[in-house]
Amino acid sequence: RAGGHTGSPTEGAGGQLDLPALGLPSDEDSLIRYLTNSYKGVGKKTAEKVVEELGPDLFQVLHENPGRLDSVIRADRAEQLLKGWRADLARRSQRQLNKEGGGDNHA
């Protein structure tokens, strides 16, 4: 497929995280559910606090400015969330790479 940028398939124009391509949730309820179900050690109260503070920009902040978490939640919880995010991003990025140019038989 002809691409308009040379960055990672997870990044759109300007290096911004391409959330739709990664299939990440964006509304508050879905974000809270996703964090509590997908990230080990992230409970409902932590997820609610982070989503309340960062809203739909949550994943963008985790990607570009993870230090902002320190003003929202305790350092140990922030590290747990970031650990989950890094693993999630790596998994989703690899899946996106496979979909875009890997071994799939997509036309």
SSE inventory with pairings:
Layout (H helix, E strand, L loop, with lengths): L18 H4 L5 H11 L5 H11 L3 H7 L10 H27 L6
Can you describe what's shown?
The protein is mainly alpha-helical. Helices cover 56% and strands 0% of the residues. It has 5 helices and no strands. It has helices at residues 19-22, 28-38, 44-54, 58-64, 75-101. α2 (28-38) packs across α3 (44-54).
Instruction: State mean pLDDT (0 to 100 scale).
Output: 82
Q: Please give the share of residues in helix.
A: 55-70%
Report the sheet-strand fraction.
Answer: under 5%
Ranges where pLDDT stays below 50 over 5 or more residues in a row are: 1-9
Report the strand count: 0
- Structural class designation: mainly alpha
Query: Largest sheet, described in full?
Result: none
> What is the molecular shape?
globular
List the secondary-structure elements in sequence, H or E: HHHHH
Radius of gyration: 15 Å
Number of helical segments with 4 or more residues:
5
Distance between the termini: 9 Å
